[in-house]
Amino acid sequence: EMKKVAEMKKASGKKTSPKTYATPPEDIELSKTFSSNKGKLPWPTESGIISGTFGEHPHPVLKRIKTKNNGIDILTNEGEKVRAVFDGVVSNILLIPNLNTVVIIKHGEYLTVYSNLSKVYVERGDRVKTKQNIGIIHTNKSESKSELHFEIWKGKQKQNPAYWIKK
Q: What angle do CA 110, 87, 149 make, to 5 degrees?
């Protein structure tokens, strides 16, 4: 059996190292369905407005300083629930200063990142469905501001979420 594998490797001319993992078929399928939904994904909140857009922007106060937004910010109501924009698996939950709780959901080779949550309803490894509630947005009491920071990545490439969610 091992001889067959070695012969097949030799025949294909490919060197395989133990660090190379093939993308599981279900991940490839999920990536395809995710990418085919560009411009059709539901918003990660039921209501809200885009308060911060993707990309580099001049700093509101400091001249010649640019701020960089890896995603978009959605200003919404206090107590607003956050929901998965697509089927996937919760790959990580992190506590990050200034971003509170961050939930990362994997959709094949795509990731969606939901930052500034005060409560989380999911755990690492959970399978989630489109529009499933995953948590509640943190409200900054001193500013009376409930703002979700939302990112989409394809591998290591940042995507502009505004192009992915419904207009």
A: 60
pLDDT digits (tens, 9 = 90+) for 9-38: 555 444 444 455 566 777 778 778 999 999
| Parallel, antiparallel or unpaired: strands 133-137 and 55-58 | unpaired
pLDDT attached to residue 16: 46
Asked if residues 89 and 105 have their Cβ atoms less than 8 Å apart, the reply is yes
- State the maximum Cα–Cα separation within the chain, in Å, rounded to a whole number: 68
CA distance 57 to 77: 25
| pLDDT at 57 (0 to 100) | 86
- Written as six digits, the tokens of 6 are 């070695």
Distance in angstroms (rounded) separating the CA atoms of residues 36 and 29: 11
Residues 6 or more apart in contact with residue 135 via CB below 8 angstroms? 81, 82, 101, 103, 114, 117, 118, 119, 120, 121, 122
